[in-house]
Every structure is written in C-alpha cells, then in structure tokens.
Amino acid sequence: MSGSVWGRLSNGSFYHDFFQWMMYLTNTVQAELMIYFYPDKHTTNKLVVDDIIQVQEERITEMLALLDNELSQRAFISGDNISVCDHFLFMLCIWADELKKPPLAFKHLAQHLKNLAKREAIIKVCERENLSLADYQ
Question: Among 4, 22, 128, 136, which has the highest number of CB atoms less than 10 A from its own CB?
C-alpha cells in the first residue's frame, strides 16, 4: 500500500498539506469566487451588489497572492508531487481570469498554471469543455 496514493497520504507531511490546501481551495477560494460571481444572492439590497463584487475581488486577489507565495517555495501546491489540489486550483484560476489582477499576473502562480496547461489531463478537459489554453502557452 505504501506505493499507492493512499499509502503516501497516510504518512508524512503530504497528508497534512494535501488536506490543508484542498480545504482552503474548496472552502475559501471557491466560496469567495461564488460570492463574486453571484453577489445578488448575498443581499436583498441591489444597490450594494457592486460593492460586494469590489470587496470580493480584493479578497480573491489576496488569496491569489498567498497561493503565489506558496508556489514560490514548492513545485506543487501541496508539496513535491502533483495532486488533485493542483487541478482544482487550475479550474479556480480559469474562473478568476477576468479579475483586474488575474492569476496569470502572479509570477509563480502563472508559471505553475502554464506548466499544468501542458499536462494531458488538463488539455483533454479543456478540449472537452471548449476552453482555450492559449493564455497559458
């Protein structure tokens, strides 16, 4: 079992880092992106929708900066090996590509995304979803 993914997850820091980053991406970054994209679902006062969008963009940009800093210290978001966290991060960054400071504006995050965009799994999913990877070349 030690050669399997579950064996690697059950010992060492990869287990900790994997779940830490997966929870951060799903419960924080994705959650904040959902508020950014659907601000009208978070207020009954339509006059504050633009304010919600602005605040969310600032929050998401701070999160991208944190991710960029982490990627300056390691090859993949949860350590030395690619994981589902990296693929999930790629998806979230595609969602965020219209921000004033998009993910590709961050040095280490941009390099990480460009490297991921060369992987067969990413290429196939983007083809299936009709998403262009031109920005990641």
Answer: 136
Burial class for 6, CB neighbours closer than 10 Å (0-12, 13-18, 19+): exposed
CB atoms within 10 A of CB 131: 12
Packed helices 30-37 and 49-71: angle between N→C axes, nearest 10 degrees: 150
Q: What is the pTM of this model?
A: 0.88
DSSP state letter for 117: T
For residue range 11-41, what is the model confidence (pLDDT) as tens digits?
556 678 889 999 999 999 999 999 999 999 9
CA–CA dist 80, 92 (Å, integer): 21
- Summarised one tens digit per residue, pLDDT across range 106-132 is 999 999 999 999 999 999 999 999 999
Tokens describing residue 86: 């990296």
Whole-angstrom distance, CA of residue 134 vs CA of residue 132: 5
